[in-house]
Design brief:
The complex is a heterodimer. Chain A is mainly alpha-helical. Chain A has 12 helices and no strands. Chain A is elongated. By secondary structure, chain B is mostly helical. The chains are: A mainly alpha, B mainly alpha.
Chain lengths: ~270, ~290
């Protein structure tokens, strides 16, 4: 493994560890208000200052990182499972089923991702509790983000279906679901893993975009998207640089994912 | 052959639009709160009016009937009325589309100018340091959410088209650089250089024609990315275009408006992708 990849792995592990230990490291809860110190700059008590409601920004960054980093993989897992089901079965069955599944996939892919997200988000109630908003946001990402992976999996399964070992298994009398489960699915694992890992940074960025547009995780629950919304109130870049900490953290995590996954992308393609 | 290809593409676009419309109508019909109408709670309305409103809602309860009705209205040019803005959707789209088209068009132009200039120089020079710097810049831009880039453009008072260009550039650059580098390393180009052909001639006669069909496909994809980028850029930079309209419609749960915008955007991206595909095939055909 190259040095750059090692640095990326260490950075990722560090951010994950800090977010997991958020409740121990944070000086206060993410919703606790210090009303005497609203919109304050960094101090010994509040390392990154407080927001306009007097909440400790450092605590919110830690908890927000935890939410984004825990739920993006969950959404990636969901989307990979759907992709495996739709793409895998379509590729395995072939013919009409493959064409129909791919037509549906094309329909989803023909729409810009952000348009699709905000359309579907708008179909659901917006005035929901913070916890429900988290579930809605990441469930939506998981339920809509399977299309690209399904295409790859359909093509991979199609080629596996015509491979010699599957033909031999079929000639030996193994058919139907058993053939798919025992002989095809294990060979899809590398592509499935690659698709899972590739989806994580995509979903992190999507949640951030939705959050900034006010369609993501609801207040007072923090996430990278809702934390970045604070940048809207800035007048100049150098004014309050500590407000950029969530952005730097997000960029470091996504860059680290990209560096670590550069090999996985080749497998996925 | 090309005519048949174009006809096939047109049919595919129409089928996708119809299917997309059906999907949108289904989603709108099944969305929570569709059956509720605030007007029915208005104490100023007579019981006959409330009954008429209820009947109108009941007529829309069947998804297929609702879809056919929406389709018939769309054919007549009536795309319905925006719930949040109280104006005809077709008028809103007519008013706002020119700004978005200008913004997206300029953004794409800027992005492709930068992509081609940097990708060509990186592929031609093959200086590791230059390559590393350009890859690092595009990689960093790729790791930032489009909405953050839009916010930064506001802070730096950069034009909206530039924000769209910055969002689109890293996606284009990655593909364009690889395609051009691959084209430059082809044996016939090495031979052409060995025979003393000028760099300009090599570029326009041997490199661009080889990479053009695939580059055209990337152009098609970049239209989709640019249209998607229009939402955060227009919403956060205050441009009254279709992207901002979509965002406002999403916040107000104005589903008739949002679904019409969605179908319009789908048609634009499908048209762009199909045109790029057909142009690429025509180019391949003329080269063969």
């Amino acid at each position: 493994m190259s040095t750059v990849r090692w640095i990326a792995v260490v950075a990722l592990l560090l951010v994950i560890a800090v977010s997991v230990l958020a409740s121990m490291l944070a000086p206060a809860g993410y919703a606790k208000q210090y009303r005497d110190a609203a919109d304050a700059g960094p101090s010994r008590q509040h390392w990154l200052g407080t927001d306009d409601l007097g909440r400790d920004r450092f605590a919110r960054v830690l908890y927000g990182t935890r939410i984004s980093l825990l739920l993006a993989p969950a959404a990636a897992l969901l989307s990979t499972l759907i992709a495996a089901l739709v793409g895998g079965l379509a590729g395995y069955l072939g013919g009409f089923w493959a064409r129909s599944a791919m037509a549906l996939t094309d329909l989803f892919l023909s729409l810009p991702w952000l348009f699709l997200l905000i359309t579907v988000r708008a179909l659901m109630p917006l005035n929901v509790s913070p916890l429900v908003s988290i579930l809605v946001t990441f469930l939506m990402l998981g339920l809509l983000g399977w299309t690209g992976a399904a295409r790859v999996l359909c093509a991979t399964t199609g080629s596996l279906r015509d491979s010699d070992f599957v033909r031999q298994a079929r000639a030996s009398g193994i058919r139907g679901f058993r053939l798919f489960w025992i002989h095809v699915v294990p060979n899809l694992k590398p592509v499935l893993f690659a698709q899972f890992w590739i989806s994580i940074p995509v979903f992190i960025l999507s949640e951030a975009n939705l959050g900034i547009l006010g369609l993501g995780v609801a207040e007072p629950m923090p996430s990278w998207g809702s934390l970045l919304k604070e940048l809207e109130g800035l007048v100049s870049v150098g004014e309050e640089p500590w407000k950029f900490v969530p952005l730097i953290l997000l960029a470091v995590v996504v860059t680290s994912f990209q560096v670590v996954l550069s090999k996985q992308e080749e497998v996925a393609a | 052959m090309l005519g048949r290809k174009i006809a096939c593409r047109a049919v595919a676009i129409l089928a996708t639009a119809l299917l997309g419309g059906l999907l949108s109508a289904t989603l709108v019909r099944l969305a929570p709160g569709f059956d509720a109408d605030e007007a029915q709670l208005d104490p100023h309305l007579s019981s006959e009016t409330i009954e008429a409103l209820r009947q109108k809602r009941l007529e829309q309860s069947n998804i297929l009937r609702f879809y056919v009705h929406s389709l018939q209205s769309a054919v007549r040019g009536d795309l319905g009325t925006s719930i949040s803005l109280g104006q005809p959707v077709s008028r809103l789209l007519r008013e706002r589309a020119p700004l978005t088209l200008r913004l997206v068009g300029m953004g794409l132009l800027l992005s492709w100018a930068a992509t081609m200039a940097i990708a060509l120089s990186a592929a031609r020079l093959r200086v590791p340091a230059y390559d590393a710097v350009t890859t690092a810049i595009s990689g960093t831009l790729l790791c930032l959410p489009a909405a953050v880039l839009a916010l930064l453009s506001v802070l730096w008072r950069a034009p909206g088209a530039l924000a769209i260009a910055v969002i689109v550039f890293p996606r284009d650059y990655r593909y364009a650089r690889n395609l051009l580098a691959k084209a430059y390393s082809l044996p016939h180009i090495v031979t052409a250089r060995a025979k003393g052909l000028s760099e300009i001639r090599i570029l326009f006669w041997h490199v661009i024609p080889v990479a053009a069909p695939q580059l055209l496909a990337v152009v098609g994809v970049s239209v989709s990315i640019a249209v998607g980028a229009a939402i955060p850029v227009e919403a956060l930079c205050g441009f009254a275009g279709v992207g901002q309209l979509a965002w406002q419609a999403a916040l107000a749960r104005d589903l008739p408006l949002l679904t019409n915008i969605t179908i319009l955007v789908t048609l634009i991206t499908l048209f762009a992708n199909s045109s790029a595909d057909v142009a690429g095939q025509a180019l391949r055909g003329s080269q063969a």
